[in-house]
Design brief:
By secondary structure, the chain is of the alpha+beta class. It has helices spanning 27-43, 50-71, 78-82, 86-93, 96-99, 102-112, 121-141, 168-177, 212-222; strands spanning 194-205, 228-229, 240-241, 245-254, 257-259, 272-278, 284-299, 307-316, 336-339, 351-353, 357-367, 376-383.
């Protein structure tokens, strides 16, 4: 795999990760590895569904059973036995993120209150230790104690950000928008726990980006009882004329996550997203794509009030037949999927509400073969969402 291009909020990971051993692993070992990664991926979610707990417990049992059959009962340690109780603990105490990782989050809040010094944390901690020792010495010796009154400590910064004014029920409803596509009635004008972020460009013509026809198709599909059309078209009786101006944005914040776009090269690493789509046969599938830009379009659907629609223009990657290359036993349990590096042609599906963004992923160029002319694919590594249900 080529070098990872990860969003800035994920921190540092190894620049290159190789998976050459996958071809040399036996089928049992592939299963153990795949199930283990799947368990970890589900367990560290901030939002943990009940059906996921059932899947986790079943996969843990499968992993321990496979290890015992392959390597013998003597390698089954007490930790593996205790792992059978993880699902029960989650039923009692909530996700592992809540009762296990909370202390680390609070420590991140304390570290966040320190000056960063270009992310050189070691000198900062040493300076803090020296300053604390000096202050303690002043207190114990009662020398220059009046000087302590002017010290103003900086307020700690927490990494568990509040979701604006969204309550529990509203947050749960928003979370379901991106997951229940078939029942979704989202148009883009609904509230969401975040905001569209600057920089932006005002009053950009829809014709300039060649998406005017796509916008008309989007509104006609979204509002089935209404008819939308371009300005100056004939047959405009009972039709709604869509405004030709939009405001384009580079970024969007949803909860504590920042989604970027190619509109700003600086934020391009956060522009890779996943979203669900319903096919004509009512099947649901998840597609990876890259956000080109966010935009706000103001339109009146009741011919009285103008309403803002918060949308994203996304290019979607093409499917390939060998998508589940890293699956085991033809199961579609695949932690890393392979997709084509090319996009589908422009269509109405390129316009989505920001509410339908399922999450982000890390793209990596990958070749199945070592041949020089081997085809290059896009390995899709899903990132868990970073908002909470209180």
């Amino acid at each position: 795999m080529n070098e990872f291009q990860v969003p800035a909020d994920l921190g540092q990971i190894p620049g290159k990760i190789y998976c050459v051993l996958w071809e040399y692993l036996e089928e049992v070992d592939r299963k153990i590895l795949t199930y283990f990664v799947r368990i970890c991926h589900l367990f560290v979610n901030r939002i943990l569904e009940t059906k996921s707990l059932d899947e986790i417990h079943k996969k843990i049992v499968d992993v321990v059973t496979l290890i015992e059959k392959k390597y013998g009962r003597n390698v089954i340690t007490s930790n593996l036995h205790l792992s059978f109780h993880l699902s029960a603990c989650s039923y009692d105490f909530g996700p592992l993120y809540a009762f296990w990782c909370f202390s680390f989050e609070r420590m991140n809040g304390i570290l966040g209150s320190l000056s960063n010094s270009h992310r050189q944390i070691k000198p900062e901690l040493m300076c803090r230790l020296i300053n604390d020792n000096r202050i303690n010495e002043m207190i114990y010796t009662e020398n220059n104690t009046k000087g302590l009154e002017i010290l103003n400590t900086r307020q700690s910064v927490g990494s568990l950000s509040e979701m604006d004014q969204f309550g529990h029920d509203e947050m749960r409803r928003f979370w379901m928008y991106s997951r229940t596509i078939q029942e979704s009635t989202i148009s883009g004008k609904e509230l969401f726990p975040g905001e569209i972020l600057k920089p932006f460009s005002e009053n950009i013509s829809l014709s300039a980006d060649g998406i005017l026809d796509l916008m008309i198709a989007y509104y006609n599909d979204t509002y089935e009882n209404l008819k939308f059309q371009k300005p100056f078209e004939t047959d405009s009786l009972n039709s709604i004329i869509i405004p030709l101006k939009i405001n384009k944005y580079c970024r969007c914040r949803i909860g504590s996550e920042i989604f970027g776009s190619t509109f700003s090269p600086r934020h391009q690493k956060s522009s890779y997203i996943l979203a669900k789509f319903a096919s004509e046969d009512d099947s649901i599938d998840i597609y990876p794509g890259q956000i080109q830009f966010f935009f706000v379009h103001e339109i009146s659907t009741n011919r009285i009030n103008m309403e803002n629609h918060y949308l994203a223009y996304v290019c979607w990657y093409k499917k390939i037949k060998n998508r589940f290359y890293f699956s085991v036993n033809k199961e579609q349990i695949c932690n890393v999927e392979l997709w084509d590096t090319e996009f589908y042609p422009k269509s109405r599906d390129c316009i989505i509400p920001v509410h339908h963004i399922l999450g982000r992923f890390v793209p990596v160029k990958y070749k199945i073969s070592d041949r020089k002319n081997a085809k290059e694919y896009l390995a899709v590594n899903q990132i868990n969402r970073k908002y909470n249900l209180r």
